[in-house]
Design brief:
The chain is α/β, with parallel strands linked by helices and about 240 residues long. The protein is about 40% helix and about 20% strand. A 9-stranded mixed sheet has the order 4-3-5-2-1-6-10-11-9, with helices on both faces. A two-stranded antiparallel sheet has the order 7-8. Helix 2 crosses helix 3 and helix 2 runs parallel beside helix 8. The longest helix has 25 residues. It starts with 7 loop residues before the first strand and ends with a strand.
Length: about 240
């Protein structure tokens, strides 16, 4: 019998965090560590969907004077590169993994469908969602919370380069205060940068629970999934 708090989670992995101080865009040793933690989660009966960002490769806003749609399209392609890298490492470490993309890339991945994703999750496979939502102007944060709603995840785990939500940027403001928990209304009222506006509003309207924590120690994923209080809980 499992002691896991959640049966199904949507894990958002920061693209920047996947570089983890390595020499290139991806630190495969670090990704391997993540896979071992996810295997531990799966052994507890936890079903895992993943949205991965692409900050280690490309962000749409880096495009400068580029057409925004084209710049964001590059970002979607970059998330797929990360998704395939995760899949390869996970499979090597014995974790059955499927990549589904919101844009048709049949040569590389399966097309995304809610039914297909849920079926794979119920079979014990990790499902990685590439290309974000498949539309420009929407971040992978928004993609994460929408996919979480579609697959009926119990919680969204935001694994980033910072250990929670703060009153200000702790790198710039040493007096910044970390919140153990906060409501979406307060996130909006205080204009915090926990999530983008679209994702925050969607979570508030659909009563989605998020845990924001640091990925530096991948075991934090397991700890949160098992119900340990880490980082910041964001709720309605």
């Amino acid at each position: 019998m499992t002691n896991a708090k959640y049966k199904r989670i949507l894990l958002k992995l920061s693209g920047e965090a996947l570089a983890a101080g390595g020499d290139g865009i991806l630190n495969f040793d670090f990704i391997s560590n993540i896979s071992e933690v996810l295997k531990k989660c799966v052994s507890e009966g936890i079903q895992i969907g993943i949205i991965v960002g692409a900050g280690n490769i490309w962000r749409g806003r880096q495009g400068g004077k580029m057409d925004r749609v084209r710049a964001d399209s590059m970002g979607m392609l970059a998330t797929t590169i990360n998704a395939l890298a995760l899949q390869d490492t996970f499979i090597q470490n014995g974790l059955d993994t499927v990549v589904m993309t919101a844009v048709n890339m049949n040569t590389f991945a399966e097309p995304y469908s809610v039914r297909g994703a849920v079926k794979a999750l119920e079979e014990g496979k990790v499902v990685i969602f590439g290309c974000g939502l498949g539309s420009p102007f929407f971040s992978t944060d928004t993609a994460a919370v929408l996919r979480a709603a579609e697959i009926e995840a119990d919680a969204v785990l935001m694994a980033k380069n910072i250990d929670g939500v703060y009153s200000a940027d702790p790198k710039k403001d040493p007096s910044a205060v970390k919140y153990d928990e906060i409501t979406y209304k307060d996130v909006l009222d205080k204009e915090l940068k926990a999530l983008d506006l679209s994702a925050t509003t969607f979570c508030m309207e659909n009563d989605i629970r998020i845990y924001a924590f640091e990925l530096k120690d991948p075991m934090n994923i397991y700890r949160v999934a098992m119900g340990e209080k880490i980082g910041t809980e964001i709720h309605k």
